[in-house]
Amino acid sequence: PPERKRFYQNVSISQGEGGFEINLDHRKLKTPQGKLFAVPSEALAIAVATEWDSQKDTIKFYTMHLTTLCNTALDNPTQRNKTQLIRAAVKFLETDTVCYRVEEPPALAELQKNEWDPVVAWAEKRYNVAIGSSTSILGPNIPASTKETFVSHLASYNMWALQGIEYVITQLKSLILSMGLIDRHITVEKAVLLSRLEEEYQIRRWGNVEWAHDYDLCELRARAAAGTLFVHLCSESSTVKHKLLQD
Amino acid sequence: MAALGSPLQTFRGLLRELRHASGRPYRDTPAYQHIVATFRAHRVTSQKLCRAQQELHFQAATYLCLLRSVREHTALHQEYHGKGERSPEEVAGLVGFRLPQQPGGKG
């Protein structure tokens, strides 16, 4: 689809009844479904405004991850409630990247053990749960109590933050790596590296193809960074009291 | 807490990215002003950080990662996906081949 040209000169933020709004010249930004774009966090609004102000001749929506996340929170296009979001997030544990191990080739199996065991151990300790890992095609057998613990923990987040958490989990294909990020145990760069461990292993063996590998790497970093920042900004005590976040 | 490196480096990196991102003088932008104010108010550039400062540093480092990755991804997109239809020679070149040259006819 043809890209939309930048049609505005100035991007600014204002505070309205519903939250912080984005102004493109004199126009107020709206969501895809036509709602007024309003966010509960000033810092988040500033970062969204920066996305819009960074567009040069054409608007590259595929680079505007924070705007996209806010639109999803406001429109909720998949119409999921909190329980459904949490269930989707925790379900990922059954196919969590860091729990799914290979036996062949031995070098990759070793790499997975060295790189993934520590983060699984961290999650088990941090949340006082049993997770483990598996080489079975069925994946690890996650105890119900473990799932319950994560369900409880995620329930403490508001709806906006949950959208962000579920987004990060979908991108990284791992609940554990996502919690590592949310809990500030690992950086985005590290989380993405761990998520792409097998790709990185193949790249080291067979060489890098910039236009494919680096492209995917940068995109995943951008998305994971956006999701994590979104979660943190929507969970800050200064924003949590905002009425947009009252479920 | 994740291993983050020096807060000063993160701060400088952010300013650098904002300079790239903005069309107009980047010091006028809300983002620049917010970042400078935050770092100043919480003294996040000092070496020893308390927990709240560490959380702020993590947030700053995450935002830096976002800005940097978007810039790099956009550049790669422009380079490899933004050029429309490529000639057969260009496509061959992308994967390291050269088309055979046939004397007197189409290459």
From TrEMBL, chain A:
One of its GO terms (biological process) is mitochondrial proton-transporting ATP synthase complex assembly. Keywords: Chaperone, Membrane, Mitochondrion, Mitochondrion inner membrane, Transit peptide. InterPro entries: ATP12_ATP_synth-F1-assembly, ATP12_ATP_synth-F1-assembly_N, ATP12_ortho_dom_sf. Pfam families: ATP12 (PF07542). It is a peripheral membrane protein. Its main location: mitochondrion. It is found in: Mitochondrion inner membrane. One of its GO terms (cellular component) is mitochondrial inner membrane. The keyword Secreted does not apply. Belongs to the ATP12 family. Interacts with ATP5F1B; involved in the assembly of the F1 component of the mitochondrial ATP synthase (ATPase). Interacts with FMC1. Plays a role in the assembly of the F1 component of the mitochondrial ATP synthase (ATPase). This is ATP synthase mitochondrial F1 complex assembly factor 2. It comes from Thinocorus orbignyianus.
Automatic annotation (TrEMBL), chain B:
InterPro entries: FMC1_homologue. GO terms for cellular component: mitochondrion. Coiled coil: none annotated. Plays a role in the assembly/stability of the mitochondrial membrane ATP synthase (F(1)F(0) ATP synthase or Complex V). Belongs to the FMC1 family. This is Protein FMC1 homolog. It comes from Thinocorus orbignyianus. The gene is Fmc1.
